[in-house]
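so my prof wants the structure for this chain in the tokens format not the other one, which i didnt know existed until like an hour ago. anyway here's the sequence
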Amino acid sequence: MTVFGPVDEAGWLRGVARRESPYCDQRPAGVQVELLVIHSISLPPGVFGSGDVARLFTGQLDSTAHPFYASLGGLRVSAHFLIERDGAVTQFVSCDRRAWHAGVSTFEGRPACNDFSVGVELEGCDFVPFTDAQYEVLGQLLIALRARYPLRAVRGHSHIAPGRKTDPGPLFDWHRLRTYCPPTMLPPAN
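here's what i got, hopefully its the right format
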């Protein structure tokens, strides 16, 4: 299980692997981190442990390595964090910067969620349950982020880009995050 320290003054989580992504930029002036967006990803789809998610986020994915990757050629995308199936965490972008994870998105009528959010990718897909290690590490990450930023909500990519995105998917157990934050921060129960 990954053990890590607080988020430092530069927006980096202490004690986790760090692979900096070029796919980020400055947040707009005066904008604070208020939203945590949970995603899921696997490359190739449904395959875990390939290392290709990190390669995608750092611009090193070989678009000829798998037929699906041809559709990803030239894609410039990142997230702040990736939590692998075993709970290992890699940070790609400082939380003080804007990672390119949400795309066209809206939260409570406010567009451009990348401006005011931190993106966390869970290695997974819509059809496979997430691991206990992932939930535990996600919860600890949520605590660390809440200690440093004025987070007021946690949502899935599907909540901020409905109809366009489905992640983290129907098997994500939102109830498991109640140990780490007030229920008012989580999406309303369906």
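also thought this was worth mentioning. The first strand starts at residue 17 and ends at 18.
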